[in-house]
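Re: that backbone. Tokens:
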């Protein structure tokens, strides 16, 4: 399938190519928010936003294009941790009707806008931020520096990609070397088996596992971002890094959980409803012992015809592991009623309890 322009734009962003030019007047900092004296849904001063990615949404409630953007903002607000992202509205009216504060309050409630909104009837913030049209989103990084500007409602996921990229910037890749592992009291193995939400949740509940991280493996650092990995064009697989104590749980036990509970090792480049090479079955080992155990287990399963179809799981040395965006971490435990989780992942936890009761423990915190 041909990638959309939005996806190509996101790829350019991840590769560090120049973003679209900004209007000359766009404020390079969040300082204009100090000028706001009238707020709805609380306030958002620059000091309270330090260390977060910030989206300043300049809008007016009667604007149709603004209303079209609001659902995406609501999704970001709901799914991304408030420690990572803040959304701040600036309501700059276009008509006299939109200057009435009571009308603004009612419209915010109707549109389910729950983040702080500054009232900008005199257009002071509009001018200070250098805005030219409704809606405009100004995106600032964790240091408070303006990084991009999105104008209009035909975003095609661009704002989401920008936000995810900026959030992930504080999460450097962790390259695991065998000599480093040997010097520690724990070992790491990276397992790919479809959507990482469910795989992570399974290993969060296995005895002897001390840490589980959702992320990406198999591709380059520049493309280790969810929207870009989702194109299936990066070489990455959604994966989980499992840190464990080999004195408490063996790699063979972990691999049995992987093959028999966490995913279906007979599905090629897919898992359940998800299709693409990013959902492949692959084991990334960090020690020779892990490699030997994985290959032996696959051979044993195949010899016994343990599965109805041949196993397609690959076994490769881990080149590098890149932690996924913060909102993906421990997704199941934070969103247990999310439909995808209910239908695809909660059954895995029940299967873990029934198949490996002696290995099952409470979820990691």
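Recovered sequence:
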């Amino acid at each position: 399938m041909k990638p959309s322009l939005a996806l190509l734009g996101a790829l350019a962003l991840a590769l560090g190519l120049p973003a679209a030019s900004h209007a000359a007047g766009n404020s390079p900092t969040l300082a204009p928010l100090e000028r706001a004296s009238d707020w709805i849904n609380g306030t958002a001063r620059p000091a309270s936003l330090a260390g977060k990615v910030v989206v300043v949404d300049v809008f007016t409630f009667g604007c149709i294009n603004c209303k079209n953007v609001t659902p995406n903002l609501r999704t970001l607000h709901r799914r991304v941790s408030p420690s990572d992202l803040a959304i701040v509205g600036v309501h700059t009216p276009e008509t006299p009707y939109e200057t009435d504060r009571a009308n603004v309050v009612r419209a915010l409630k109707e549109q389910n806008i729950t983040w702080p909104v500054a009232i900008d009837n005199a257009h002071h913030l509009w001018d200070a931020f250098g805005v030219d049209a409704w809606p405009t989103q100004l995106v600032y990084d964790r240091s408070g520096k303006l990084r991009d500007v999105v104008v209009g409602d035909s975003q095609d996921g661009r704002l989401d990609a920008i936000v995810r990229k900026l959030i992930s910037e504080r999460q450097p890749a962790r390259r695991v070397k065998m000599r480093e592992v040997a010097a520690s009291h724990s070992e790491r193995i990276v397992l790919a088996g479809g959507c990482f939400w469910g795989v992570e949740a399974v290993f969060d509940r296995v005895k002897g596992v001390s840490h589980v991280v959702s992320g990406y493996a198999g591709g380059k650092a520049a493309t280790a971002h969810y929207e870009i990995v989702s194109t299936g064009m990066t070489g990455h697989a959604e994966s989980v890094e499992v840190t464990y104590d080999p004195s408490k749980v063996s790699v063979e036990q972990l691999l049995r959980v992987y093959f028999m509970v966490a995913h279906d090792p007979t599905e090629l480049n897919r898992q359940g409803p998800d299709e693409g090479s990013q959902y492949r079955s692959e084991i990334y080992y960090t020690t020779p012992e892990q490699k030997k155990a994985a290959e032996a287990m696959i051979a044993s399963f195949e010899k016994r015809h343990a599965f109805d179809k041949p196993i397609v799981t690959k076994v490769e040395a881990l080149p590098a592991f890149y932690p996924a965006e913060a909102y993906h971490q421990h997704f199941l435990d934070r969103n247990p009623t999310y439909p995808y989780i209910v239908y695809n992942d909660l059954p895995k936890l029940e299967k873990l309890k029934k198949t490996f009761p002696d290995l099952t423990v409470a979820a990691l915190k």
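The mean pLDDT is 87. Residues 178-355 form a domain with the Peptide Methionine Sulfoxide Reductase; Chain A fold (CATH 3.30.1060.10).
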